[in-house]
């Protein structure tokens, strides 16, 4: 592996991760899906994308991207997590040279700590009303900066643990997408535990998640998938990251997704190395 | 001319004469009988001894971390330096890579088949917490209620079956019993001690080669069992447990709390757990609380409604939130049967997502067991009982490292310990069969 050249991660033909062409749009908004499997958590990628959206650089995965001078910011980042508290992301971003707890253009929406104790307190159909209220009050009203990037992590827990349908969740995420420039949705995608398109029972959690993801893929511009090697565990390879076009093009720009496949290695000290596959 | 120690205050009243055999600060009677450990009385809130130490100007979380590291059962992780506790099994601590389970993290033990090896791990985990209450540590040999165990879904009977400390092999125990009997005041012992022929010192002189052995035994006897690690700061970090023994004295109510499953809703259980945690931390803010949930979703304990995703996932999600709320005090361990909830189901998948560490025990089937027993018929101590698959490791899996190890480790449940070691396929030795061939070989 030492003889193979380390590559920079890029998503678009302008050698960017989160492109200026996306952030500087006036009317369009775009959707990207980051899917992963058990064993290939995208934590390092999220931290890099947050860094890139905030300050322009992406130290761990792309050395060509440079930080904006004079402390300028590229966009406002809103991070909505159903899986982790703020401390998890703030400690992770330290490696990227960011203290997100002190950054004005970073807003964390905690959908984790009190999700089932204060947000979704009722059972049954009222949960849909509560969820809509939560998205409206805690998220849509918070995302005020039009030039913004929004991350939503682990939204599928709403499908597996409540009576909320995939269409309701898609509708709420769609509303968020419209008020920001770039929306990243981070989902687990393990077959057959999480998605299985052969399941037809509408009440089944797997059906709901499969339906949610399938519909989401029909709306996205960019899909990023992280998965372990199909041959099993290797000491010098963590997994494989696949960049592919979504079904919808980047309307209003000349931006193209550079479809590539990398193998990557995450070391215990948090460094990431990418190689072409 | 009289001499005073430097630390004595001139003009102060004379110090109370020391009582021979008593250790200052130690309650009367404690330690009078070797090996007996009497837990100290619970300290009322606000009346406890104030912690001494340098004035800290660091952030509250940093100072909390420093304080919790003074706990005898806590030490920094080898990977992340975060405070970590022992699971009670040193081998399990090793495969978790942190040398234990980091505080604020959770461990799910999955088990396939009809065996119940997972309960051994959970009981040892609970025992380790109870034992930490009973150790003397620090320069003043203080003993306090520094740990608490919360058991969900079981009654006090569960705690009565916790394994006791491993006291050595049967030979060692016999020696210890003989030594203890010799120390007792009895007519025969007094006669023995007066008799010049059968005195203890004379016994040692019977055979010359025993001198060396006795010397070694004396050396180890004086210092054992804690001497080898006395100097280390983590001497009480982990203990060895004997599953054939019971923890004595049985855990008291200050050491273990029980939360029963009384309804099909998770919120009452959660509020009970929350109130116990709050109460325990009021007594001692540096207390380590071990939350134990054996046989999660087992139909004998949990109502059927609990197995629905709409109940169990919010429950575990709330527990995860509790762990993040008390990152310096709370740890969680659970076990679940994969026969009831197979790995392919969405429920188990979501549980694995919500737990920080996941291991799977896969006992060998009968054919494999017979093969291994045959291969190791001369070394029964090497016979493994099943495989250990690692799914998630705290902190590392979340940070994106691929930590799935399938079939790389095997476990063996013995009297001494729950042993986990690297798995290698045993080679069957057929050389004898070949040697005993009865065919006539013509050249």
UniProtKB/TrEMBL annotation, chain A:
GO terms for cellular component: elongator holoenzyme complex. Signal peptide: none annotated. InterPro entries: ELP6, P-loop_NTPase. It comes from the Eukaryota. GO terms for biological process: tRNA wobble uridine modification. Pathway: tRNA modification; 5-methoxycarbonylmethyl-2-thiouridine-tRNA biosynthesis. Gene3D superfamilies: P-loop containing nucleotide triphosphate hydrolases. Belongs to the ELP6 family. This is Elongator complex protein 6. It comes from [Candida] railenensis.
UniProtKB/TrEMBL annotation, chain B:
Belongs to the ELP4 family. The keyword Amino-acid biosynthesis does not apply. Residues 224-235 have a biased composition (Low complexity). Coiled coil: none annotated. InterPro entries: Elongator_complex_protein_4, P-loop_NTPase. PANTHER family: ELONGATOR COMPLEX PROTEIN 4, PAX6 NEIGHBOR PROTEIN PAXNEB. CDD domains: Elp4. It comes from [Candida] railenensis. Residues 1-23, 40-62, 217-237 are annotated as: Disordered. Pathway: tRNA modification; 5-methoxycarbonylmethyl-2-thiouridine-tRNA biosynthesis. This is Elongator complex protein 4. Keywords: Cytoplasm, Nucleus, tRNA processing. One of its GO terms (biological process) is tRNA wobble uridine modification.
């Amino acid at each position: 592996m030492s003889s193979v050249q380390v590559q920079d991660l890029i998503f678009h033909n302008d050698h960017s991760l989160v492109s200026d062409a996306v952030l500087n749009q006036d009317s369009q908004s775009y959707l990207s899906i980051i899917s992963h499997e058990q064993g290939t958590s995208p934590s390092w990628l999220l931290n890099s994308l947050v860094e890139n959206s905030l300050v322009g650089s992406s130290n761990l995965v792309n050395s060509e991207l440079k930080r904006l001078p004079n402390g300028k910011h590229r966009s406002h980042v809103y991070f909505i997590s159903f899986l982790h508290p703020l401390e998890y992301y703030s400690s992770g971003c330290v490696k990227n040279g960011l203290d997100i707890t002190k950054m004005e253009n970073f807003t964390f929406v905690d959908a984790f700590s009190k999700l089932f104790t204060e947000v979704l307190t009722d059972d049954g159909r009222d949960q849909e009303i509560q969820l809509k209220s939560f998205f409206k009050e805690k998220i849509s009203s918070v995302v005020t900066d039009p030039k913004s990037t929004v991350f939503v992590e682990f939204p599928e827990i709403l499908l597996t643990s409540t009576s909320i349908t995939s269409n309701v969740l898609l509708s709420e995420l769609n509303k968020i997408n419209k008020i920001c420039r770039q929306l990243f949705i981070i989902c687990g995608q393990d077959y057959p535990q999480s998605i299985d398109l052969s399941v037809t029972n509408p009440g089944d959690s797997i059906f709901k998640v499969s339906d949610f993801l399938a519909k989401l893929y029909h709306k996205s511009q960019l899909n990023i998938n992280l998965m372990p090697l199909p041959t099993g565990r290797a000491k010098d390879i963590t997994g494989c990251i696949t960049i592919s076009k979504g079904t919808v093009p980047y309307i209003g720009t000349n931006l193209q997704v550079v479809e590539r496949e990398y193998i990557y290695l995450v070391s215990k000290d948090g460094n990431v190395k990418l190689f072409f596959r | 001319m009289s001499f005073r120690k430097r630390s004595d205050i001139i003009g102060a009243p004379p110090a109370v004469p020391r009582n021979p055999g008593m250790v200052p600060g130690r309650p009367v009677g404690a330690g009078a009988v070797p090996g007996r450990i009497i837990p100290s009385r619970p300290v009322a809130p606000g009346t406890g001894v104030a912690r001494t130490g340098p004035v800290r100007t660091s952030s509250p979380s940093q100072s909390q971390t420093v304080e919790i590291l003074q706990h005898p059962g806590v030490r920094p992780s080898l990977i992340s330096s975060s405070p970590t506790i022992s699971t009670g099994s040193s081998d399990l601590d090793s495969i978790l890579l942190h040398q234990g389970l980091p505080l604020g993290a959770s461990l799910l033990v999955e088990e396939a088949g009809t065996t119940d090896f997972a309960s051994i791990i959970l009981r040892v985990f609970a025992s380790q917490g109870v034992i930490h209450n009973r150790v003397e540590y620090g320069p003043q040999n203080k003993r306090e209620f520094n740990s608490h165990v919360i058991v969900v879904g079981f009654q006090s009977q569960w705690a009565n079956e916790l394994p006791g400390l491993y006291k050595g092999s049967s030979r060692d125990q016999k020696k210890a019993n003989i030594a203890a009997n010799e120390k007792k005041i009895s007519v025969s012992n007094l006669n023995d001690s007066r008799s010049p022929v059968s005195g203890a010192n004379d016994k040692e002189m019977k055979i010359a080669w025993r001198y060396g052995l006795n010397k070694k035994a004396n050396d180890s006897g004086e210092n054992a069992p804690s001497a080898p690690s006395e100097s280390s700061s983590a001497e009480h970090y982990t203990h060895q447990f004997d599953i054939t023994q019971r923890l004595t004295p049985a855990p008291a109510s200050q050491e273990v709390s029980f939360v029963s499953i009384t309804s099909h809703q998770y919120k009452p259980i959660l509020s009970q757990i929350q109130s116990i945690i709050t109460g325990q931390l009021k007594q001692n803010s540096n207390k380590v609380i071990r939350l134990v949930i054996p046989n999660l979703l087992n139909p004998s304990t949990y109502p059927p409604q609990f197995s629905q995703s709409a109940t169990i996932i919010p429950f575990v999600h709330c527990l995860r939130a509790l762990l993040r709320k008390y990152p310096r005090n709370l740890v969680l361990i659970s076990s679940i049967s994969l026969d009831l909830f197979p790995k392919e189901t969405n429920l188990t998948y979501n549980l694995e997502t919500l737990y920080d560490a996941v291991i799977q025990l896969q006992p060998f089937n009968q054919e494999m067991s017979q093969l291994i027993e045959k291969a190791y018929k001369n070394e029964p101590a090497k016979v493994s009982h099943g495989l250990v698959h690692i799914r998630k490791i705290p902190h590392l899996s979340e940070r994106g490292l691929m930590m799935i190890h399938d079939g790389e480790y095997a476990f063996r449940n013995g009297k001494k310990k729950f042993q986990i070691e690297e798995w290698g396929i045993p080679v069957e030795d057929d050389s004898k069969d070949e040697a005993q061939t009865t065919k006539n070989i013509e050249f």
